[in-house]
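Hi there,

I know you've been waiting on this one. I reran it after we fixed the sequence typo, so this is the corrected version. Both the input and the resulting structure follow.
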Amino acid sequence: MKRILVVDDEQPVVDHIVRIIERDLAGEFLVAGTASSGREALEKVAADQPDIVLMDVRMPGLSGLDTIRELQKRGTGAAFILATAYERFDIAREALELGITGYLLKPVVAETLNRSLRTAAIQLDRRSEVELKEFDFREKDREVRGFVADAFLEGLMLGRSSGGGLQALRSWLGIDKPFGLVAAAAFLRHPQVGRDTLEATLQYKSQALVGPLVSDRCVVFLPLSSLEGAAEAEHALREALQATWGEDLQRGVLRLGFADPKPLEELSRSWPEALGRLSGRKSSPGATRFATGGKFEEEEEFHGALIEGDPDRVRFALDALLKPFEEQVDVAVADRYRIIALLGSAIGRLVGLGRLDEVSAHLWMDFDDLRQAPDGREFCLLARSRFPAFAEAVLRSKRISVPVSEALVYIRQNYSRPITLDLAAEYAGVTSKRLSRLLIEELGQGFSDYLIDFRIEKAKVLLAAPGASIKQVSADCGYPDPNYFARLFKKVTGVTPTEFSSRQ
């Protein structure tokens, strides 16, 4: 039933209209109220929220047309029917411009009034249907936009920032600016933080795309009109986070790492760069990049994700390592064996962590398909085919605890300096005794053994670089005495650093 407000400065006219409605249209319409002036009509519409307003044109003070204009400015959704004693073209034209649904001449005839009210009711119902469809469309558009944003951001995390597919995603998202800033955010002690909360916080003062949240880390993308606007965008993002997590930022348990701003077509390098800065690594390409592609930091991320039991991070790190080889006609022998060594080392770690039995590990160690892959695309496909098995093994045990995760972060950031169990425990916020127990329970290794393995893995990478200095590698890996380093390296690997370097 539609509610009607009758507005006229002549009470007999009002009474006549009310009688017709109550007599002929009682089951369809209800007179919600009456008013004798434009000012009163403004108050009654605000209070009674009628569906239809039947308005006299000429009234003392505010005219009917001026009243309708004011009501429309205030956002009323009511339909309007005009009633006038004068058939004038200028009034009819203004009524048309205002979208008025009916135009009655006085004295009001019952048949005409009934027809006008029913027409107004039909238009209101159609408007409601259109508004409902628009609402549904907006909801579906918002849902699809979320999927599109996830696809775009996942492309950034996997190092895919160009191509027709991503251009289509950018177009859908309305990203028309030529540059972008990528950041990595780590909520190490906030596993309960949801993506919606994070996104709402970051978008409070910035136009950021956020997510997905992987192992308490997420990618953040901010479009830029120019490279010079990066500092302002970074400030806005930090300010948004400061409002909600200012204390965590100050304590360092909420961390941010920003890549350098880049053209959209070059963003494939941004996520590893942001992750590196998040964990405190210097972004010096000459020190971290291999001859034909890949970065040690990505191998480190791969192993770290395996240890922490995070299959999503394992996949992202593996994809980042394989990306440089996808379009190669042939993959260099050194690069083939580097990836094979990485996978073999990962299998060994899974066995050591009790997540993979030795029989399965032996079968997994068959890498003939990778050695013989005819091109880069086939090589990457075969390497990625191992991921489901890796993911299953990774998920067989729970993710490591926050103190152990913090200790591993500390080792990765400080392995080149003298560090101890006490320093790592202080960083993780627990006692040395508890950290030692947690490391053995969760990793199957004590602090010293893990640190040695980590440093030796780093040393292997540095020794593989052409012209590597054993003395410098020893110092870079936290061993100021190269003789001690050489003895330890041989004990762990079975060969001396010189022999290992000569085989690369």
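Quick highlight: The longest strand covers residues 179-187.

Best,
R. S.
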